[in-house]
Design brief:
15% strand; 3-stranded antiparallel beta sheet; Aspartate Aminotransferase, domain 1; Aspartate Aminotransferase, domain 2; alpha/beta; 17 strands
């Protein structure tokens, strides 16, 4: 089976992890600070805070932005549930905006969903393709809203020559290091920001809301052992073991992204002008890092998606679908969200299939994917 995505690890990665296992610090040690500094340098942000997952990153970003009950966030339904669950964790309400033909939140539809309760916009750079951040930032500035970019698909991507994660157009940006992402730490995540205030808040919320910094104490210290819990925080820490792997993986990120783009160009060339499905495409402002290569079935094939998907799996292609619109999930339906609220997202879901793309994929495997896909469609 050729999966739609997988990790790419080598001996250097393994050796770096082993070094930490033999060291004095397995967690809360120096590798975490090193990973954060190197990640911030790569992304072009002032600060980075490493956490236990992309979901933890989203939750902490919302907490740092002081999202509260009765507040609303705006996001897309074509995403993993965590992009909106982070609002629910804070007692706030997710509001979904329909998408454009690329599967990204339609920035032209955001304005109609802004209310006096709206506090945050969470644009998702679906598949590794950046949203139109300039327009979203202009809108957010006009309404004094906070922007948290969900960059979990887009490490290595660029918007107008700025790397996703630089926070040039946002307050914070979050990433995931799950094994199918661009780099992995097993599980893990990162939040970047250029705000010292947000950075300090993220750091303390990551560790139970506790500080051991005497300069930050609210009360008089009882002695060298003293610490204070100043907020209701969480244990969202990452380990030194994971951070060592992340540092090693980060060195190879540029090669990983370039290989993903090479595979995408092979697909683009092979599938150009085919009569079965449409492919992803970049606009002038966007440089994709191709976390996914989503194909969209044309109308004549949309009603045959289950058959096509099953045949792809039977032929050894580990395809997947990204995503079922979040508000169609039973839990969201129980909260009152209704089918039909984002018709373009629902149509996208009925058409989308993610085909294999990852750095260690060989040209022979790419050719097999191409030949197999054409063979399946020609047989339908």
């Amino acid at each position: 089976m050729i999966p739609y995505g997988k990790q790419s690890l080598d001996e250097e990665d393994i050796n770096e992890v082993v070094k930490v296992l033999k060291s004095d610090f397995l967690t809360t040690g120096p590798k975490i600070d090193e990973f954060e500094k190197k990640f911030a340098d790569y992304a072009g942000s002032k600060y980075a805070v490493a956490v236990s997952s992309g979901t933890a990153a989203l939750h902490l970003a919302c907490l740092a932005a002081e999202l509260k009950e009765e507040d609303e966030i705006i996001t897309t339904p074509i995403t993993f549930a965590a992009s909106s669950n982070c609002a629910l964790y804070c007692g706030a309400k997710p509001v979904f905006v329909d998408i454009n033909e690329q599967g990204l939140i339609d920035e032209n539809r955001i304005k109609e969903k802004i209310t006096d309760k709206t506090k945050i916009i969470i644009p998702v750079h679906y598949s590794g393709l950046p949203c139109n951040m300039e327009k979203i930032k202009d809108m957010a500035d006009k309404h004094k809203l906070i922007i948290i970019e969900d960059g979990c698909h887009s490490l290595g991507a660029k918007y107008k020559n700025s790397k996703i994660g630089s926070c040039k157009y946002s307050d914070m940006c979050v990433f995931s290091f799950h094994p199918v992402k661009h780099i992995t730490t097993g599980e893990g995540g990162m939040i970047t920001t250029n705000s010292k205030k947000l950075y300090d808040k993220l750091k303390i919320l990551r560790t139970h809301g506790i500080t051991k910094d005497p300069k930050e104490y609210m009360n008089k210290s009882d002695g060298p052992w003293y610490y204070e819990q100043q907020f209701l925080g969480y244990n969202y820490r990452i380990t030194d073991i994971q951070s060592a792997l992340g540092i090693s993986q980060l060195k190879k990120l540029a090669k990983f992204v370039e290989r993903r783009r090479e595979i995408a160009r092979m697909y683009d060339k092979a599938f150009k002008n085919n009569r079965y499905f449409d492919m992803p495409f970049e606009k002038e402002h966007a440089y994709s890092s191709y976390h996914l290569y989503p194909i969209k079935l044309k109308d004549g094939y949309k009603n045959k998606k289950k058959e096509i998907f099953s045949k792809m799996r039977e032929k050894g292609l580990g395809v997947q679908v990204h995503f079922i619109p979040v508000y169609l999930q039973p839990y969201y339906r129980s909260l009152g969200y209704k089918k039909g609220s984002c018709p373009l997202a629902e149509d996208f879901y009925q058409k989308e299939i993610s085909i294999p793309i990852y750095p260690s994929m060989t040209n022979k495997e790419v050719e097999y994917v191409i030949e197999t896909i054409f063979g399946i469609f020609e047989g339908i």
